[in-house]
Amino acid sequence: MKRIAIVGAGFAGVQAAFGLERLLRDGGAYEVTLVGEVNYFMFTPLLPQVASSYINPRHIVQPVRDIRGRRRFRFLRETVDAVDVEERRLRLLGGSLDYDYLILAPGSATEYFGIPGARENTLDYKTLEDGVTLRERILDLCEHADHTTDAGERAQLLTFVVVGGGYTGVELMAEMRDFYYQYVLRKFRGIRREDVRLVIVEAAPAILRSVHPSLAHHAVERLSSGGVEIRTGAKVTRCLPDGIEIDGSEFLPAHTVVWAAGVRAHPLAEALPGLHDRMGRAVVNEHLQLAAHPEVFVAGDSAAPANASGVPQIAPVAIEQGGLAARNIRHMERGESLESFKFVDQGSLVALGMNYAVVNVFGIRFRGYLAWLIWNAIHLLKLVGFKKQVQVAFDWVLAMVFPRDAASVRRVRGCPLCAGKERVVEKAPSALK
Where are the domains of the chain? Predict the structure, then answer.
């Protein structure tokens, strides 16, 4: 029996599992195993809306076993510790898994560029847990700011900084602008508009560099007029628990700093033998195969095809590469010629908060409410499962009619003010004795 392993239950991995279903239906002796660290697939383009309480976190994730349906691939929730390409074996935390073919699609990791304190003192924003953690932290800080009498402390509590002006950073900031100005200022009576400060810090000369310049320029105007400071050409040189240092001299105090400045290849891909690009992505041939190991395919954010080295790390690319890797395994088993990866830029879509977006589709550029409706429609159609499509659509409708559901559902972790209060409470019983 031929064993095919897929590492990663993201866009590329799930698409690869779907593509290999045809191989299983051919009647051959094959076993396909999809390995993921979590038991769900997450629709990452909607993750910024989790932090702003726009949508329910559970509505953008779908259990892998539900997605699988009647498909015959096996799912294993496990952590892959290493890939042994010589032995054709995955080393798992709970054992090992041998393979004849491997599709490695583990996603990406955050790039901190060696900046002191960045990893320890900023918030990442890649997982569902990151989205929920940020949401709870923002709510907690608003609660503190609502009753503090110190204007300086209130300003620091309500300063929200995003480092990185790419898709994630801009869409996250747009969501948080809506949350602060449309919800917080209405519901928290001790917070005024001048207390809130929202800042995007980007080391490059401009934000949204992969978007058409005219749309990027309009995005800057839209965000700036809505109360967002955009600092371009500003390099973060150090991150501290209470703020960031810019260009080695300026200090920006803030209790919340989200790091969205860059990504690297996943450590599993970086550890593969052969060439890697500056981001650590494994250099593969035009068929997505690893040099000297044609049975290993790399897809998604950790792949750098030799014929398309500058391909962006976005969902459509991952989906295309996952499907291509699956088809090429089928071709290899049938003795057919392999297909080559070809990147076709289908455009860009950037949401700038509720009721507004900028869109470039097949060279047609437009902005505003219509662009926002198209952004919603495209993302809704790409959601996996009719149930999730209904849930997200309902969330959007409710958010247009009712206030956002901003209840804090768990104790906030990592808040220095709450931590101080906890220490006081712990000492109180002994003081009463």
Answer: 2-37+78-110+263-334, 118-261
269-279 pLDDT, tens digit per residue, is: 999 999 999 99
- pLDDT greater at residue 419 or residue 60: 60
- 240 by DSSP, 3-state: which? strand
Instruction: Return the number of other C-beta atoms located less than 10 Å from residue 314's C-beta.
Output: 17
The predicted pLDDT at position 219 comes to: 95
118-261: same fold as 2-37+78-110+263-334? yes
Greatest CA separation for the chain: 82
pLDDT band at 430 (very low <50, low <70, confident <90, very high): very low
- Is the Cβ–Cβ distance between 30 and 2 less than 8 Å? yes
Cβ contact 269:275 at 8 Å: no
Q: Specify whether the CB–CB gap between 252 and 243 falls below 8 A.
A: yes
**Beta-carbon-side half-sphere exposure of residue 277 (alpha carbons within 13 Å):** 19
Separation in Å, CA 177 to CA 50, 51, 170, 322: 13, 11, 10, 35
What one-character DSSP code corresponds to residue 276?
Answer: B
CATH fold group of domain 118-261: FAD/NAD(P)-binding domain (3.50.50)
Contact 278, 183 (CB under 8 A): no
Q: How many C-beta atoms surround the C-beta of residue 428 within 10 A?
A: 9
DSSP string over 118-185 = HHHHSB--SSHHHHHHHHHHHHHHHHHHHH---HHHHHHHTEEEEE--SHHHHHHHHHHHHHIIIIIH
Is the backbone of residue 144 left (phi > 0), alpha (psi -120 to 50) or beta? alpha
Identity (one letter) of the amino acid at 359? Answer: V
The pLDDT tens digits of the residues spanning 186-219 come to 999 999 999 999 999 999 999 999 898 999 999 9
Asked whether 197 and 291 are in contact (CB, 8 A), the reply is: no
- Out of 3.20.20.80, 3.50.50.60, 3.40.50.1000, 3.40.50.800, the CATH code matching 2-37+78-110+263-334 is 3.50.50.60
* Global confidence as pTM: 0.92
What pLDDT does 292 receive? 92
Strands laid side by side in the 282-284 sheet: 74-77, 30-36, 2-7, 101-104, 293-298, 289-290, 282-284, 303-305
Distance CA(339)–CA(356), nearest Å, equals 39
Place of tokens 């809130």: 196
pLDDT of residue 412: 63
